[in-house]
Amino acid sequence: MVYKRVHKLNQGIENGHDKLLNEALFMQQQAKKSNFYPRVIDVRYEKEDLVVECEFLYDGVTLVDVIFNEDLPQLYIDNSLEYVIKQLFDKYYVAKSTVPDKDYIFKCYFERLRRRMDVSLELIDTQFRDWVHLKDAILNGISINGSYYPGIYEYINYLEQDKNLHEILMIDQNYESHHDLIPENIVVNKVEGLNRIAEFKLIDPRGEMETGENSRHYLYDMGKMLFGLDCYGLFRKGFLINDFSHFYFVADKGNNYTLTFNRNSVTIQHLMESQKTWWRLMQKLPDEFSDNWGKRSLQYLFSFAFMYLPDIPCRIIDEKNEMLALSFYTRGMMIMRIFMSKAYGKDPLSLKEVSEVELWPMQGV
Asked: Which of 198, 225, 251, 253 lies 20 to 30 angstroms, CA to CA, from 217?
């Protein structure tokens, strides 16, 4: 069994008591519709703590363990990713009758990002006053691999004004969704002799009571998955165990940062190829989910671009490591520029005529 416990007064960074309660209730509701979640055995209070008891599956192995396993061939990972995405789009992402919130793009993306950046600055000002580098990056901008990126609020302000872009990005229907679909939240069953995982379950969803049932869409899940197939787990694991053999992240004088990757790392190769595979698989989905690929791919990239930076307050609270938080900020700004370049031809906030970003810059290049 898996036991989750949180004090009833603990709200965390949108990740405390209410989140856990909504998660448990959502999983119980989903059990009546599908078989994608572990069974919730009990939801109860023990004195001041909310306790949620769930079944423990597959020895806790997750999809990220598969991706980070350097002994597995890429074909096994690709086949597993194909199995996951087909199951989700064939059986899980069912259209709902609710009308999408007209402010979906603002609430799920712009306002969430602005709110999380405000929280980050508040945490720095009240609890992490010596984190001057992260605060400066958020407010005044950052230089990454020799290119300058304005502060994130400039990007939010710019994008909030573009009504034509909002129309392109807006969803036209609600769907069943998970809302935190990273590989760490997909537990998998590995069976000897198969060329892919045998089955999987989804864990740690965001419940509808938290997000609103008229703000649910697979677009958000695809952004989360691209985020998870990028550097989310790589950075967290690297800073946790001080293993920087896969990537190089260093600060120079001022807000000048270098982020490159080890071309000889099998883990980096797995991440690069897995991300490419996921993009290819999304493009091959049935027409309901992949028609007008130019628009769809822009929506997916937009969702991806809005995942790194809102996660920073969680990294501040959980790991208390400024360089980890800065790595998330750096990578998030790189993805943001890639989105801006696709949406506008070039990043309109870039100081250079050409603002394309190399997604996986290699060391020594």
From this structure: 198
